[in-house]
């Protein structure tokens, strides 16, 4: 829960344990040294709250313009009235410009009123919220939930994307990738032997072994319905597995039991050495290769003789490497941040193409890494799924939580990637960029409208063309400008997210 390690952590007498984590086997006698606000989980929640409070509010361009727009328009209206009235009073233009039923005062007042009516702060005010509203709806349709316009705005300028390893870049689930026999035993018999011993264990790696052996023997022989599979699986397991006696788990080393009155050992090198089992050089070499590729090797001995080994890994999500490459093409620097050990972290990073790796980092340290990248003004996005990621998710300018992650991670994030698919990181950033390009067009339409319409309403063209805009027509133009901005925002509904096949064609604009 805290380090993000993909393997369980063995505990001994006087070890520190953390409330909320799971004890896999054996009995614990514990002494509470911290309670309430002193617990690790409370401290993480406090870190999240502090980070959320420290986010500076973004001063929107529209807010600034709106604050000065109305005074400017009123001033222009008064100026328009004054110029036309004074020019008329001093005979600067002929009285024939206004008909006999009017006078210089009314003539000037109509220009002044048209200026007030035609000026449209509404279009400026609608430019951002309408686009953000459409974009959040489009994002939801594509499995990306956006928690607010601020997050959408920050995501367009992201410089760094930090990925957690376990459960984000990887699937967060142990699976057997390799099984190799180094004796005369048949592979099927080897898997049956290992599965029979591991069936009594609650260890996550044991479950992976059992699943692998089951599928090896019975793939394609099960009913199609899910309920049928589970019922049939229970029947098969009770009949297929060999009977294991005197089962015991050796903490931090593996398991041992008796099958057919012969001792079975399954675990690491330490378990083999303790029981005098010699691992042949070719198996040792194979095991080293597994470990260099971020896989856990499980050694198996039967009747005091080495039989074979299995490789277990937390496999990468299939889209991880192409998403990392796509981010690079977009001009974004990917970083991997994990509480896991350096060897595993570097092996995974090499496989996905990430050069910048930070390993063995605790939860508070993850938030510190985010802040260190923000020091030069860079915009940092964090993608994570666990409790240990939540401080970094909150500290980042843009936090993206995997939808299958923990509640605290989802609460701390600005985006939720509902489908647990890393491709949606690209979608979130691309949607943000497209949205703010649209907002810039909205501002252009709104500003251009006012720049052109206000002089026309003030009578700038009247001396040359005799064109005077009455207040009712000015009102219609004002409404049209708002409608045009809304229609511009609605064009975002045509958004199509980048596909994996085209991600690598994305370039920095």
Write structural notes for this entry.
The chain is an alpha/beta fold. It has helices at residues 40-53, 61-89, 104-118, 121-141, 149-155, 165-169, 187-198, 204-218, 226-240, 269-274, 281-292, 320-329, 342-352, 363-374, 390-395, 407-412, 423-457, 462-465, 471-490, and strands at residues 144-146, 160-164, 175-181, 244-250, 254-259, 262-267, 296-302, 305-313, 333-337, 356-358, 380-384, 398-402, 415-417. Helix 13 (342-352) links the parallel strand 9 and strand 10. The model is unreliable at 54-59 (pLDDT under 50). Its main location: membrane. It is found in: Membrane. Belongs to the cation transport ATPase (P-type) (TC 3.A.3) family. Type IB subfamily. The chain crosses the membrane at residues 61-85, 105-127, 443-466, 472-492.
Into which percent range does the helicity of residues fall? 40-55%
With helices defined by DSSP (H or I, 4 residues minimum), what is the helix count? 19
Biggest sheet, spatial arrangement of strands = 1-13-12-11-2-9-10
Give the beta-strand count: 13
- Proportion of residues in β-strands: 5-15%
For the termini, the CA-CA separation is 40 Å
Low-confidence blocks of residues: 54-59
Q: Which of globular, elongated, flat, extended, rod-shaped describes the shape?
A: elongated
Main sheet summary: 7 strands, mixed
Question: Which fold name is given in CATH as the topology of the largest domain?
Answer: Rossmann fold
Number of domains: 3
Mean pLDDT: 81
| Broad structural category | alpha/beta
Broad CATH class of the largest domain: Alpha Beta
Gyration radius, in Å: 34 Å
GO cellular component, one term: membrane
InterPro entries: ATPase_P-typ_cyto_dom_N, ATPase_P-typ_P_site, ATPase_P-typ_TM_dom_sf, ATPase_P-typ_transduc_dom_A_sf, ATPase_P-type_domA, HAD-like_sf, HAD_sf, P-typ_ATPase_IB
Keywords: ATP-binding, Copper, Ion transport, Membrane, Metal-binding, Nucleotide-binding, Repeat, Translocase, Transmembrane, Transmembrane helix, Transport
Subcellular location: Membrane
